[in-house]
Amino acid sequence: MILRHSHWIFDTSAGASAGFGAFNAETGMFARRDRDGTSHKYTYTAFGISKTWGLSTALRLSRIALPKIIIKKDEVSGAAATTDFNSWGTVYLTDAFRGVDLTSPRSIEGGTVC
Q: Which residue from 56, 61, 9, 58 is spatially nearest to 31, judged by alpha carbons?
């Protein structure tokens, strides 16, 4: 896969997710700035079957102890982030994007698989 650099910039994001057993649902927003410096916000919603694990377990880091809620051998989980946390980045385009670069906020609207 070849990635092409876009002139748009990732600005910020926020979101929340909740899970019960293998079922997960999430919603959020992210913002990108165009060449003129105008910020455009996008919202998303996703749901389905998932497998999650803590990054601290994979990296063998100490975890923050939170109370566990167990319902019939399944666990309830959740996460959230606000735009108060700084985030920034570069936007790249894949071969699936037919244009040369993003030209309008509608250039990236539609469904996705994640």
A: 9
- Check: CB of residue 44 under 8 Å from CB of residue 29: yes
What's the burial of 95, exposed, middle or buried (CB within 10 Å: 0-12/13-18/19+)?
A: exposed
Q: Return the C-alpha torsion angle 85, 26, 102, 109, nearest 10.
A: -150
Is the pTM higher than 0.70? The answer reads no
pLDDT, tens digit, for every residue of 2-53?
Answer: 889 999 999 889 999 988 878 889 999 999 999 899 999 999 998 888 776 6
Q: What is the dihedral sign for C-alpha 91, 96, 100, 105? A: negative
